[in-house]
Amino acid sequence: MKTKKQPLIVIAGPTGVGKSQLAIDLAKKFNGYIINADSRQVYKELNIGTAKPVPDRILSPKCWEINGIPHYLYGHVSIRENYNLSDYVKEVREIIAQEKKIPFLVGGTGLYIDAIVYGFELADASEKSHKFEDKSVEELRILAGEKLSLLNQSDAYNPRRLIRLLQGGASYRVQSKRRVPAAKCLYLVLDQPEDTLNKHLADRIDLIFKQGLLEENETLRNKFPKKNLKAFQTIGYQEFDPYFAREKTLEEVKDLIYLHTKQYTRRQRTWFKRNKIAVLIPDNKKAIQLAENFLQSL
Hints:
single chain, alpha/beta, two-stranded antiparallel sheet, 10 helices
């Protein structure tokens, strides 16, 4: 007899669109819990630049409580660790197997979300020895994952650039992908008009600078002088390299962060819009209605 698989509700969307608050509202209303699906918010040391939520209580190393809702996999990994998609998938599957409430998978990292939704099978492999030449552009992009944020729009579809990007290595590869969800899933994508979102991004960047983004970067660089740490290849941190090299002003760094964030949100939108089961929603009211209908249908 097969075990009934836990249904899943995804709340995805571009950076700064308001996913976190929507997730809390839904989890409260439908007695659920939240699992992080942002590949940078897993790191302990990256706080302000990733807009990571702040816990009300720490229930365990992998679980926080925020507004009465359990939040899993936020700030539980050091940037010294080589954390990747394979580690993430294993942890999420363990959480879903243990928890009895409805899981809300929340974030903007499309690859992490799809690996859970579609039940990707992953195999250990060193990318230094892995052969990329016979891969399609789309397969290379999937392997690159969050590293795509380091490429411009043109290079992100250039196979030679993608292969070069992948030479840094990882400890997994996507062995197989499903075309249908591995379990019953409602895949919501919260979005806004581009001009509205860009205004929110500008306000958000101003806020994180006021909260101490510069000081956070200074502290991290003093504590972790190695620049090749994967976590430093993150928007909000990588742009400070020329500032500390005295090549750019702080205002120019802010402009770079805004530019890179806008480019990243466009890539996020492209990723989610290609997903055939994703439902674009304009506001929280529509999300609540769809979630209610979904749960009643189970």
